[in-house]
Amino acid sequence: MKRALIACGGTGGHLAPGIALAEELVSRGWSCELLISKKQVDAQLVKKYRQFEYDSIPGCAMSFSPVRFSKFLRDLFSGVRICIRKIRKTQPDAVIGFGGFSSASALLAGIFTKIPVAIHEANRVPGRVTRLLSRFANRVYLPTDVYLKSVRSGRTFNVGMPIRTEIEKMAKDEAKRLLGFDPNRKLLLVFGGSQGARSLNEWMAASMEPLALDSVQMLCLTGNREDEAEERMYPAKAGEPVRSLILGFSDQMALLLSAADLAVSRSGAGSIAEIARCRTPSVFIPYPYAADDHQFYNAKRVTDAGGGLLLNHESMDELFELVRITISDDDGLREFESCLEAIDGIDAKSIIADDIEMSLVSSKSASRTEVGAR
Predict the structure, then answer these.
(1) DSSP per residue over 183-229, as a string?
(2) What global pTM score does this model have?
(3) Among 160, 209, 214, 218, CA closest to 187
C-alpha cells in the first residue's frame, strides 16, 4: 500500500484541499496521514473524516518580533524532529504540503530524508513557505498562469484547488427548505472564511433588519465556534416576517452555498473554489491585511472572468446598496452562475493524484530499482 504524509493544517483553506486529495488517494488504495495544527478550526473540521489518520504538530507564522520569531523557530525545529521520526517509522512514498507554516516542518523533514516532496499553492500570490521551499520540491502545484522562478525547470504543474467530494451543488429550493428558509424569498449568505471576519459580522448585524424589509433572508457564519445557533425574525414590507439565522460554524458548506442566492465573502482560495463549485454569485471583500494582498488577486481573477463582484474593504459603506441591487437582479445572478461554471471546470484532486502517482512515486520507485540493480 502506498502511503502519503499530507501537511495541511492552520486554516480551512489549507485543510480542506488536503482532505480532498486524501479522499482521492484513499480511493486509489493509498493510506494517508494528515498533519494538522493544534487550532480549533482543524479539530472541528476533521471530526467527520474518520477514514484518515491524524496527528497535530506545532507551528506558527513567522514574525520578526523577537519573541514571536523565537517561538516560530522553536515550533519549526520541534515539528521537523517529529516529522523526521514519523517519516523514518512509516516510510511514506510522498510528503505533500498545502502551504502555511503548519506545513513547513513536514516539507523540511521530507527534503532532509530525501522523500519526494510536493507543494500545493492555492493563492495567486504564493505564500512565504511556498516561495522558500519550492526550490527543493520535486513538484510545485500552482494556479493557472502563476509561476515561480525558484522552482526547478520542469517541476511546476499548473492546476486548481482540490475540492472535497461532499462539495457539490444542490437544488436551491431544496437547500433552502433543509435550512428552514422560505424557497420563494432571496437568501443572502455572509461568511468570512473558516475563521470568520469581524467586519462582515458587524455589517450583517446592522443589515439584517433593513434587508428583511425587502424580504431578503440572511444566513451568517460568524467563525466563532462557541456561538450557538440564533434565529431572528424581522418584519417585511409585504407578507410574513423574514427569518434570519446566525451560526458560529457549519461543516455543511455545500448546503449553505447552494441555498444562497448571493454570498458576501472574503476571498481565500478555498472559499472561492467552493463558491465556484456550488455556482454561488458572490461579492468578494478581500481581507486587507492578507500577506502580499493575495486575497485581492484571488478575487480579481474570478471577477475579471465575470464570476462575481469585487469590493475593497475600505468601501464597505457601499455594500448594502450593492447587495440590495445585485440580489434582486435575476438575470445578473444567472450570468454570474454561468461564469462560475466555466471557472470551476476541472477535477483538480484527480489530476494532482494522477501526477503524484506518475511523477513523484514512479520516479522514486525507478530510483530504488536503479540502486538495487547496482
Answers:
(1) TTS-EEEEE-STT--HHHHHHHHHHHHHHHHTT-EEEEE-S-TTPPP
(2) 0.90
(3) 218
Question: In CATH, which of 3.40.50.700, 3.90.550.10, 3.40.50.2000, 3.40.50.720 is domain 172-344?
Answer: 3.40.50.2000
Alpha-carbon torsion angle 70, 74, 80, 85, nearest 10: 170
* C-beta separation of 216 from 239 below 8 A: no
Q: What is the mean pLDDT of residues 249-269?
A: 94
pLDDT at 98: 94
Give the tens place of pLDDT for each residue, 81-133.
999 999 999 999 999 999 888 899 999 999 999 999 999 999 999 988 999 99
The per-residue pLDDT for 220 is 93
Q: Are 13 and 294 a contacting pair, CB within 8 Å?
A: no
State residue 369's pLDDT score: 40
Question: What's the distance, CA 368 to chain centroid?
Answer: 35
Q: State the pLDDT at residue 225.
A: 63
Q: Please list the residue range(s) of the chain that carry CATH number 3.40.50.2000.
A: 3-160+346-373, 172-344
CB 93 within 8 A of CB 116: yes
Strands 156-158, 187-191: parallel, antiparallel or unpaired by DSSP?
A: unpaired
Helix ranges restricted to H, the chain: 12-27, 40-46, 66-90, 104-112, 128-133, 172-178, 198-213, 253-259, 269-277, 294-304, 319-327, 330-344, 348-355, 362-373
Q: Which residue has the cell 516539507?
A: 107
- The sheet with strand 262-265 has its strands ordered as 230-234, 242-247, 217-221, 187-191, 262-265, 282-284, 309-310
What is the CATH code for 3-160+346-373? 3.40.50.2000
Query: Does residue 77 or residue 45 have the better pLDDT?
Result: 77
> Which residue(s) pair with 189 in the sheet?
219, 263
Question: How many C-beta atoms lie closer than 10 Å to residue 327's C-beta?
Answer: 21
6: its cell numbers: 499530507
Residue 362 has pLDDT above 80, yes or no: no
pLDDT digits (tens, 9 = 90+) for 141-154: 999 999 999 999 99
d(CA 345, CA 350): 13
Distance in angstroms (rounded) separating the CA atoms of residues 178 and 167: 16
Q: Mean pLDDT: which of 55-59, 282-286, 370-374 is highest?
A: 282-286
